[in-house]
UniProtKB/TrEMBL annotation:
One of its GO terms (molecular function) is dioxygenase activity. Pfam families: HGLS (PF07063). It comes from Rhodococcus opacus. Its EC number is 1.13.11.93. Signal peptide: none annotated. Keywords: Dioxygenase, Iron, Oxidoreductase. This is 2-oxoadipate dioxygenase/decarboxylase. SMART domains: DUF1338.
Length: 482
């Protein structure tokens, strides 16, 4: 019987989720339409240059989802479901620290890790888990009641988990099992029509809207599903012209003179969705909740550890400059971008070659077959190979997330800031703890990007018959790299 491969499960799951979310949140369909129109325009204007960071087929199909769970057991089960589709946990994000308001979750992202698998379908899901033991948000009494509530629910059926484990073991499923797996997996993220306990939901909402969205209901759902766009500034403007209520800013790096780096994100605001509530007297009433929104993203080149240090430092400098400017006049989103762009243009190389030679971004390298040797022998220095025209850098797409941006999107769609008592002690959670919860390796994104770059350089060395490994750029200071 034909086997449905893991990447095919992944692609079909992404397609079905997109269809489901479009039915549940009609404005998402508008977002897809505008994204497609923007991408068509960029492709028409730039031609092949529009596909510098991925083929238009990949960009058009690309989505990232976001879900939220409540317990380590639920997180471990999510890992099993996504492993069936060749999606593995990458990165650790502590949004408790990244957010100024109350966002009591820690997160990871499930995605393909192999470049060929990413090229087939790069679907990724940002998955957040509640931390009820953190006293900055939850009292001991509320923690006990919340954990008791969460322990009684079951997000994934036994049949789904069995099929997921089978797909992981055999790297795919037969057609009948594949259809059942996809049906059950999609249904697990469908918005429930079950009545919400209004009093319990409101109690959690006083702590955090995110906590209520996770622990105030008996199921999980898609929080947002994000298309990729090639010009996020154009998309933002087009959505506003359609009178779609957008959040104030585009999160992440500014629009500047150089190549796109890392990740830029924005969203339309969470919409009021009809829900049914159970009142304290047992009666059932109609109402609404605002928890789901429409996010969109533009992906750039992956930054190295050194590049990320520069990004984080510039983020602090931008915030300081904006505060200083706001002391004399209101700062619009456009002025904020101008302030950020000026700092970036002053301090960051504005070419791919500059980013590569300063070791600020990740690239693969391709031998220039038009280069004539003329008896010369290429050296081992990457800088010489680039300067002398032996190789050309090809950007590696950033496949991951920025915690400040994720927290910023969450915050912009909260119904309230909630409550965060900074005098209380925190619960220490790190990547090692998350790996234990998942019961499988938690990949470090930098290690993955380093591996792709190193494999490329080894291939170049073999093609050019260079003895020994190619020498990468030496470490440099991160202050004022230009």
């Amino acid at each position: 019987m034909p086997i449905t491969q893991q990447w095919e499960l992944r692609a079909e799951f992404a397609r079905r989720l997109s269809h489901l979310y479009g039915k549940e949140v009609p404005a998402y369909t508008t977002l897809l339409e505008v994204s497609q129109a923007v991408n068509d325009t960029v492709l028409s204007d730039l031609g092949a240059g529009a596909e510098r960071l991925g083929s238009i087929a990949r960009v058009t199909a690309e989505r990232h989802g976001a879900i939220r769970v409540g317990t380590p057991q639920e997180m471990a089960q999510v890992a099993r479901v996504f492993a069936a589709m060749g999606m593995y946990p990458v990165g650790f994000y502590d949004l408790r620290e990244a957010a100024a308001s109350s966002v009591p979750v820690v997160s990871t992202a499930f995605r393909p890790t192999d470049p060929d698998e990413l090229a087939r379908n790069p679907f990724r899901v940002f998955t957040s888990m509640l931390v009820p033991s953190d006293r900055r948000f939850f009292s001991a009494d509320l923690q006990q009641r919340l954990e008791s509530f969460l322990a009684k629910r079951r997000l994934f059926t036994t049949e789904l988990l069995v099929l997921a484990d089978r797909a992981t073991e055999y790297r795919g499923l037969n057609s009948g099992d594949a259809e059942m797996f996809l049906t059950l997996a999609t249904a697990a993220f469908k918005l429930s029509t079950e009545a919400v306990d209004r009093a319990w939901y409101r109690e959690l909402e006083q702590v955090s809207s995110v906590a209520a969205d996770i622990g105030g209901v008996t199921s999980t759902h898609i929080n947002h599903l994000t298309p990729r766009v090639l010009d996020i500034d154009d998309l933002y403007a087009r959505m506003e012209r359609r009178r779609i209520d957008m959040i104030e800013t585009i999160q992440g790096p500014p629009r500047w003179a150089g190549p796109d780096l890392l990740l830029r994100q924005t969203s339309f605001r969470a919409l009021a969705e009809p829900r049914v509530f159970r009142e304290p007297d047992g009666s059932v009433e109609k109402g609404s909740l605002r928890v789901r929104f429409g996010e969109v993203e533009a992906r750039g080149i992956a930054a190295t550890v050194r590049g990320r240090e520069v990004y984080d430092r510039l983020t602090v400098e931008v915030e300081q400059a904006v505060r200083e400017a706001a002391a004399t006049a209101p700062v619009s989103a456009e002025v904020r971008n101008e302030i950020a762009a000026e700092l970036w243009n002053q301090q960051v190389p504005a070419t791919e070659q500059g980013l590569a030679l300063h070791d600020l971004a990740y690239f693969t390298y391709r031998v220039d077959t038009d280069k004539q040797r003329n008896g010369t022998v290429p050296g081992r220095s990457l800088q010489d190979l680039i300067d002398q025209g032996w190789v050309r850098p090809e950007p590696i797409v950033y496949e991951d997330f920025l915690p400040r941006s994720a927290a910023g999107i969450f915050q912009s769609n909260l119904t309230s800031d909630g409550h965060k008592d900074t005098t209380q002690s925190t619960t220490d959670i790190d990547a090692a703890w998350m790996e234990g919860v998942l019961g499988r390796p938690l990949h470090d994104p930098y290690t993955l990007y380093d591996g792709i770059r190193r494999a490329s350089l080894d291939h170049v060395a073999n093609q050019l018959e260079i003895c020994g490994p190619i020498e990468e750029p030496a470490p440099i200071a991160t202050q004022g790299v230009k």
